[in-house]
Structure formats: C-alpha cells, structure tokens
Specification:
With 267 residues, the protein is α+β, with helices and mostly antiparallel strands. Helices cover 19% and strands 34% of the residues. It has 2 domains: 71 residues, no CATH class; 168 residues, Jelly Rolls (Sandwich). The strands form 2 sheets. Strands 1, 2, 3, 5, 6, 8, 12, 13 and 15 form a 9-stranded antiparallel sheet that branches. A hairpin with a 6-residue loop joins strand 2 and strand 3. Helix 1 runs parallel beside helix 4.
Amino acid sequence: MDYFGLLPEGCVSDIISFSSPKDAAISSAISRGFKSASESDTIWEKFLPSDFQHIISKSDSQLLFSSKKVLYFCLCDSPLLIDGGKLSFFLDKKTGKKCFMVAARELAISWGVDTPWYWEWISHSESRFSEVAHLKGVSWLDIRGKIETQILSKRTKYVAYLVFKLAEGHEGLEIANAYVRFVNRESEKEAEERASVVSLVEQKVKRRIKRNVKHPRKRVDGWMEIEMGIFFNETGEDGDVEARLMEIKRLHGKGGLIVQGMEFRPE
C-alpha cells in the first residue's frame, strides 16, 4: 500500500521543503503522492534564491519556463549573462546555492588594457562571454577579480577559480601564487604571505608531482580551472572578496594563457 499517498499533499510538501533539490527530484519516484508534491511551484520556489527574480531581471535574455522546477534546472544547466555580460550566474544543482563567473573584461589584468603587444582581446567560440583575454607575452603576470559578498549565498563556503585554456606553445606558466582575501579585513601583504603555490599546466607524470602545488583540472565545458582559494560567506556583509593570481618574482617570459574569467561557487 502507498502509505505516503494517504498523507495530505500539504504535509508532504512541508516534508520535501526541508530536504534538498536533489532529494526532491528523487522523491517523485517514491509514490504518486510525493510526485505531485515534489513537482509543485511552492517547493521549487523555496529552493530558488530569494532574489532570483531580481537576478533574472538583470539579464537581456528572456527565460521561458513552465514551472519553478523547470526554471531551477534551467539556471543550473544554462548560465545566465547579467549586468550587460559582465557576470555569469548559475545555480549549484545539488544545493541551489548561487554561483557567479566574472568576465575577463571585468578583471584587473596588469598590462591588459591598451597594450595589445602583451594581451589581446578576442572572441572564443567556447566562451560564455563575448571576449576572452589572450596573453601574448609578459614577464609580470598579475590577475585580480573581485565580487561582492552581498550577492553570494549566505552561510556558504565558496571556492574561487581561474577559468582558462592554454594556447599551443604556451610558456612560463608552470608556477604562480594565488590567494583569496576579504579586501576590508586583510592587506595585500598579509595575503601574499599565505598565498598558495599553483600551476596552470596539467601534471601528467604522477611521480613528478611537487608537494603543496595545486594543479588545474578539466571542466565538463572543456575549459580548465585552478583553485585560487576558499572563503566563508557568513551574512554577506564583508564587502568585496578579491581573488588574485600572480607571478611577479621570476621575471621570465610567460605566454599562451587564455582567460575566460574567475568563478566563485560553493565548495
């Protein structure tokens, strides 16, 4: 007997609302009673960010959806460009937490503005943004990205990533330093002292892996990402968070880096 089906739908909805989006999607297979409740707009609106309508209004794209559940998975699977293409917004499918990628054009890149012999701005068929930054050649590599904690999900641990590709013939990208800091709480000098060592080049020979060096991994969208640091967003009242990648001590040639942006998403 389907005992769950005997429960009032409102009771079932309350039960599901305390679960996760993943559990809600699975629960529809338990019984007909759960299926009906787990499809309701009431449930899926609770899984959407409280400001989802405001975020959607900042996009030039028109979203068509037949239910809040359809909207939820649309925002998980299809990043939405907002703020005139400066930011990309999507949801973490398991938790419904907010994720953002800051476009390369919004990053502070040393020698990246009006210096086409160092960096050039090009279109890329696999980028969600209209432009990416292509490093032609520098000796001083310094890339920074900021995001307001106010727009992130509260009480959430976030990870900052540089999202990039390597051009054929890339050079000088084996070692760099990276950190994440709250701008109003920690100085650049303090953050530099605890910066982690990263590499933008994949480590293909395991026996040569250096200790304490983070290496990039390939994403499902075909790009690479390197972890830059972790921070906890408590109430969204900590101002800006800055993520920085730099190699400013070994002044050898560096080239072949293609930057799509910096992504901030839950751990």
